[in-house]
Amino acid sequence: MLDLPTEFIEKYQQLLGEEEAQKLVASLQTESKKAYRINSLKFKQKTPKSTDQPVPDIPHAYYGEVSSQDPEWVSGSVYSQDPAAMFPAYIAKVEPGENVLDLCAAPGGKTTALSEALKNKGLLVANEISATRVKALRENLERFGISNALITNNDSEALAKKFPNFFDTILVDAPCSGEGMFRKNPDAITYWSQDYVLTCAERQKDILTEAVKMLKPNGKLIYSTCTFSPEEDEAIVLWLVEKYGMTIEKANHVVSEKVSYGNPSFINSDLEDLKKTLRFWPQDNLGEGQFAAILRMPDEEVEVKSKKKKKQKNRKGLTNEEKGFVKKVLDHFNLPESLQNWEENACVRQDHVFIPAINPSELKGLKIVNNGVELGLLKKNRFEPGHQLAEVLGQVDQENVVELDSSEDYKKYLHGETLRVKTELRGFILVAREGFIFSFGKVTGNGVLKNFYPKGLRILKDE
């Protein structure tokens, strides 16, 4: 049983009335809902998991649980995510070719959904201020096979100086008091208080002040939290409307009766458009708690003080010899559209060969975690393909694949062990389990499969 703060219960008794507040409190004592999304960048190859319990409104999303050791997860063919948390990226309705920013991106659920909508076209910037959480963000985006993402580890002010009036769409899933996470993460209860709610609201304003500087005129802001608190939800949306002249848009494509809407009376406002915002209550039995709003910037630019841009240096491309080393490996695989012009687009830095999502010379002063797709590493007179490349290649059908037929061999490979396999293939190959490509390997002349699964992702034998 969750020991909910008396102050929390009394707050929602006042807002909702005794009966509805009782439903909220009772729902927080039940188990949280688990769900997953199927990665549409990869699912044509093989549809993973059961699809008989769809999440309302969200395409390719289903209730159920996926283990982090399942081949569907390891290959990036699915992403485990709270059902309600799927809606902010869904209502963004981004289009291929847009410049999109996920400002508070870790661990990556919303970012991966945005990447599906972009279809590897345009630019996706995924930022996370926490140096610890950004590592999980990178792993999840790499696993998903995203080729147009720039991952950064900065505060919003640093990004605003670099990208003034730049993005078509920005998603801000803001740090909040976490009321909607109580049953999923009971630790959130221990630091909740009304004072903390108000502190979070001020922090959200600070983040959004910088976010709006990065929106193009008429750009779209998706604001979301995982809390019910009106101080962090309707009140913040009203602040954006009043301070920046933004307009609230309705998510016409959300039709489920399990979704509730914003309530102007919660903050003593008469702004009817607040009813266009979305709120997800756990008692509605869709998922955890969530709030989301679509806001549109006015047509004029927000004035931003930024440093004068210096003339950018050309990126360092590959020499003909280096291209030959890379080509010798890549010629054995079918390349998705995003990689087909690699000879023209690839560059090299400290022997790392990558196709940048944005010219590296334009990013000076930012903490860059990953830029585009790392193809691999140049070594003495050879090229060694990287793990991110394997996950991107998993988007299309491949012939040079070694299938691990037994669960025992699959577990051994995830541990980092070398295997003996029956195959006529030699050299670098892709490794799959149940049809899901998840790694590179290298087959030697005597049929030994050398393990190229990254050490940082390997699973210990006792897990």
UniProtKB/TrEMBL annotation:
The active site is at C226 (nucleophile). GO terms for molecular function: RNA binding; RNA methyltransferase activity; S-adenosylmethionine-dependent methyltransferase activity. GO terms for biological process: RNA methylation; RNA processing. Residues 1-298 form the SAM-dependent MTase RsmB/NOP-type domain. Keywords: Cytoplasm, Methyltransferase, RNA-binding, S-adenosyl-L-methionine, Transferase. It comes from the Bacteria. It holds the Pfam family Methyltranf_PUA. The keyword Protein transport does not apply. S-adenosyl-L-methionine binds at C104, A105, A106, P107, G108, G109, K110, E128, D155, D173. Belongs to the class I-like SAM-binding methyltransferase superfamily. RsmB/NOP family. This is NOL1 NOP2 sun family protein. It comes from Lactobacillus kalixensis DSM 16043. The lineage of its organism: Bacteria, Bacillati, Bacillota, Bacilli, Lactobacillales.
